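Repro case for the chain-ordering regression, as requested:
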Amino acid sequence: MIKKNNAPIRRDNTTKTNATGKTGVKNKRKSPKKPFVKRQDPKVTPIAEGNIRIIPLGGVEEVGQNMTVVEYGDDILVFDCGFQFVSEETPGIDYIIPNTKYLEQNKHKIRALIITHGHLDHIAAIPYIIHEIGNPPIYAGNIATLLIKKRMTEFPHLAEIDIKTVKPKEKLRLGKLGIKFFEVAHSIPDSMGVSVETPHGNIVISGDYKLEHVNEVPTQKEYDNWGEIGKDNNLLFISDSTNAEMQGFSIPEKYIQSNIEEIIKNASGRLIIGAFASQFHRLISIIEMAEKYNKKVVLEGRSIKTNLEIAKIAGLLIPKEGTLIQAKDMNQFPPDRILVLATGAQGEEFAALMRMANKKHKFIQLNKRDTVVLSSSVVPGNEISVRKLMDNLYRHDLKIIHYKVSDIHSGGHGRQGELMWAAKMVGAKYFMPSYGNHSMLKVHAQAAKENGIVKEENIVVPDNGSIIEIQEKGTVMKIIKEKAPSNVIMVDGFSIGDMQEVVIRDRQTLAQDGIFVVIATIDLKTGKLRKSPDIISRGFVYLRESQEMLQQSRNLVKKTVEDDAKGMKPIDFDIIKKDITDNIGRFLLKKTDKRPIVIPVVLGV
Amino acid sequence: MIKKNNAPIRRDNTTKTNATGKTGVKNKRKSPKKPFVKRQDPKVTPIAEGNIRIIPLGGVEEVGQNMTVVEYGDDILVFDCGFQFVSEETPGIDYIIPNTKYLEQNKHKIRALIITHGHLDHIAAIPYIIHEIGNPPIYAGNIATLLIKKRMTEFPHLAEIDIKTVKPKEKLRLGKLGIKFFEVAHSIPDSMGVSVETPHGNIVISGDYKLEHVNEVPTQKEYDNWGEIGKDNNLLFISDSTNAEMQGFSIPEKYIQSNIEEIIKNASGRLIIGAFASQFHRLISIIEMAEKYNKKVVLEGRSIKTNLEIAKIAGLLIPKEGTLIQAKDMNQFPPDRILVLATGAQGEEFAALMRMANKKHKFIQLNKRDTVVLSSSVVPGNEISVRKLMDNLYRHDLKIIHYKVSDIHSGGHGRQGELMWAAKMVGAKYFMPSYGNHSMLKVHAQAAKENGIVKEENIVVPDNGSIIEIQEKGTVMKIIKEKAPSNVIMVDGFSIGDMQEVVIRDRQTLAQDGIFVVIATIDLKTGKLRKSPDIISRGFVYLRESQEMLQQSRNLVKKTVEDDAKGMKPIDFDIIKKDITDNIGRFLLKKTDKRPIVIPVVLGV
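-- result from build under test --
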C-alpha cells in the first residue's frame, strides 16, 4: 500500500505517556488514573576518540528493515534504509522501519546514506526517515537510484532528496572516512558491497550477495572482486546471513534461466510465469528469451511493470518493438506465442495471478492448455496463501511448474559455502553476521568459527540497536552496555511511531472475540434506567441468532446499574461502568466461551 | 482449547436470515431493512436403487476435517470425523468441522461411524457431530478407541457414545454392507484402511498411510496387507493425497529413529526433544531409547503426557520404574542423564518449548550445554512462529538440530512413489484422491493417470459435499449435479454453525483498523447536542496522541447532527446516524489512512 499526498504523522515518543490508554478517551474525561509521565529516550554516551562504532539499527533480528551505522570520530555513515513487511502478529500495521533515534540525536555527524542495492528491504524506508536524519546525501548504484527516485514520487509532499549515483570500484571521501564500492552478485543489477576505511582497518559491509559459480567454484570475476577487497587490511566483515542455514552453494541463476528457457522453448500453449518483481535479472532474461522464441509478452502487475520500466530507463532491457503487448490484445496471437509475466506468485489476494486463478481477471481466462510457472520460492508466512493460489489454479486443470518440482528459482542470497568463501577472501579480524533473524546469525557465526575463518571471541552477534565498539586501536571488539533506542517503529496508515502495544493488543483481541458495547441511560433522580439498555456488538457472535442472550445481557445491565445506583448519592459512574464490564464479561464468557472487549457507556439524564 | 462442561450451542441455519446482521442490534429496534427469509437446506434427491454414493463431507479441500460417506441402498457408512485447525483467515474460530446436514437428513440410514485411526483430523469432531447424526455405533482400532473416549470426557454433558474396538482383518456386516479392515503403516498404532463390499465391487478407503520400506522396496508385510486387499474385486480406491506432491518414497521411520538414537547415545548434556504428540511410534521409541542409554525422561506438555498415558494403557509403552521423572526433580541427575520430551516444536506460544526458550518455564532453564532436537517438520502456516522459537532458543547459545539439517523427522503420509505402489496393489477400476487440498488431489490424480494406474475418465476429484455416484452396475462413475450441503461449519467458542461471514468480516476489519464509536445526545426540543459527543475507540490509533483529531471528530459530529436536525420534525435518527458514519469515516480515512468501523450511537432526550 502506498501512501500518497499525505504527510506521515510522526509520533514523537518524547511526549508519550506510560498510561495504558486503554479506556476510551471521552470529552470531559477525568484525569487519567496513571499520571502522564514523559518518557525521554536517554541520550547515548558519545563515542570516545579513536573508537569505532557499528550499530545495526535494523536487519539483525529479522529479514528486512536493514540499516547499519558506522561511526568514527565526527563522522557517521548510514548503510541502507529498508522496511520490513509485517505479519499477523501486528495486525493492521503496514511496515516496520528502523528506529533512527540514535541518528536523530547525532544528525550533525551524518555524512551520507549509502545504499548497497535497490531492493525494498534496503531502500523503502527512505521516505519515512531521510528528513528525520537531516536529509544527508544518498549514494546508490544506478538501478537503486532510479528506484529510490521512483519511490519518492509517491511522497510528493516531501522535500527533495540529494542522491548521487555511484559505481563499483568508485571511492569517496565522506568526512574523514574513505569508502570504496565493490560489485557483488545479487538478483538486482548494480548490487554492491562497501568497504569503509578507518585508521585501524577497514569495515567491509557485504550488502546482500551470492556468488556466481560453476559447480561451487566461484567465477574469475568473483575472485577479482572479492580478492581486490581482500588485499586491504580488513578489521571487520559484516556479512549477509539470510541463507546461512543452507549448506553448500546456491543454484546458479544461469542454470535457473536455462531451465526456464527450456520451458519457454517447448511451450505448446500459453505460458504464465509468476515471479518476484525484485528479480530484475530474471525478468529481463525472460523477456529476451521470449523474443528469441518469437513470443509476445504481457506484463501483469504494477511492480513488474514498474521495475521493467526502470530496467528500460537504465538501458538493461531494450525490448524489440511489438514484443510487449497489452492483455486485451492477446487473442490476436496463437496461444503458443503468448507469455504472461505476472506478479502474485505469493498468493497475494489482489495480484494478477490470483485474479486469473479466481476468474476475476478482465482479459485472461485460464484453461487446461495453459502452463503456469511459479518461478519463486514461498516467503515464510505465505504458505497458506500460496497453497490457496495453487488450489485455485488447479481448478482450471492447467499445468503448474513450481520450484519444488523443477529448478526454476534461486534466491539472491548465498548459502553457507558461499558465505564462508567470501569471509575467507575478505580475511577480516572480526566478524559480524547481519541481515537475518537471530537464529540465522547464530548459525552463520557458528559456521565462521567452525570453518576457522575467525576466532569465537572475535565474532559478535548483535541485536537491533546494539552498539558494537572497536576499541584500543582495533584490538578489542565488544558490545557496550548502552544501547541505541530500538523499540519497534511501525508505519500504521499515516502514523509512524514506536510500538503502540495497546492498540495492537486491542486489535488482536477484537480479531479473536470482537467488541460488545452497552449503552445505559440512568435517570439521575431515580437511579433507574430510562429504558432498556442498547447493545452494539461487532465480531463477537451472530447477533440475529443470539436474541435470548442479548435480552439476558440487557437484564443483567439493568440489574447491575440499578443495584449499584440504589445506595449512591451522587451516582458514581466509574463504579457502575466497572461493574457492567465485569458482570457482562463474565456472563458472555459463560454463555459463549468468548471474551469480547466490553465497553460500558453510561449516561445520566 | 477444550470446551468443558458446556453444551455447544448448535446454530440451526434453517432459521437463519439473509439479512446482513451488520447493524448493531438494539432493544426496540425497527424492523430490519431486509425481511427475514427462511433458508432451508434443500433435501438431496434420494439415491436410486443399485447406485453407490460416495460423499466426501470434508478433507478434499484441505488437510483436516476428514469425513467420507459411503451410501448404498438403505445403508450409510460414515468414515472418520475430524476437525481442522484454522488460519488467520478465520480469526477467533477454534475449528472447522465437516458439514453433516446430509447425514442429519438421512440419519435413519446410518449404520456406523468407522474410524481409520486416532489422529485429531480423523476423530476430533466426534463430540460435535455424533449426536447430531443419531449417535450411531463407532468402530475404531484400540488406540483410536482410547483417544475418542478420552476426548469425550471433555464433554461430560453429552450422552454416552457406543464405541466398539476392531482389529485389522476383522470383518463386519453393517446393514447390507460388509466391511473389512486392513493394517496400514502410519505414525500412530492401529491405523487401518477399510474395504466396503458392494455388489458391484469394493470401495477401498486407505485412511492415512505410508509404506514401510527398505530403499523404496516395500516390506513383506506391506505386500501381505495390500496384496490381501488387492485380491478382491475393487471398484474404487480412495487414497491419501497429503504428500502426493513429493516424489519417491518417504524416509522410513526406522531410519529417523536410528538417527535420534545416535543423538541420544552421544549427548553429553541435556537433550530436549520437541516432537508432535501425534507421533506415537516415535514418542514410544524415544522413551525406550532413553532407557537403553540410562537416561531419565521428563515429559513436558499436556498432549504428549496424555498420548503416552494412552500408550501405556494400551500396553504399547511399559516404562521402567523411575524412567519418567518430574521436571522439578531433574537437577538430582547429571545433565547427560536427562532427556526432556516436549510439545511446542511448532512455536506455539504457550507450549513447553516456547516457555523454556522465553525463560518462562518454572523448572527448566536452558543453557549453552543443552541440545534441542526439533523432531518435526513445520506445519504450513507456522513458519513464522517456528522461526521465533528458533530465535529464542538460540538466545541461550545452545545447539539446535532440526529436520533441515538432519534426518530426524518423517511424516506419516506416503509420497507419490508409495501412493502409486498402493494404488497398483489395490487395482481398483476407479480412483478418487482424498485427504488434501485440491492441488494435492489434482497432482495425485495426474500421477495415477501418468503411471497407468487408472484411465483419466475413471478418476474423480471431488469437493467437500460433491456426490459421486457409481451407476449402471458399476460401469459409470460421475459427480452428480446435486451437492450435499457444504457450507463451512465453524466452532467458535460454544457456538457451532455455518460460516458467519458477517462476524468473520467484522473481525478482520477490527483487526486491521479497529472501531470508532461516537455517542451523541440530542436535545429533542432544540435539535442541538446536549453536550460534546463522547468517543470510544479501540484498535484504531493511539488516542492519547490523537487529541486534536478527536476534537475535530467531535466537532464534525456536532455539526453533522445539528445540520441534519435543523429541518427535521420529528428527528430522523437513521439519517443522522448514516451521516455520522459517512462523514466520520471519510474524515478518519483522510487523517489516518485507516478505515475503522464507525458506530454512531444517537440518543434523544
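Ordering looks correct now. The domain at 9-38+48-248+413-498 of chain A is CATH 3.60.15.10 (Metallo-beta-lactamase; Chain A).
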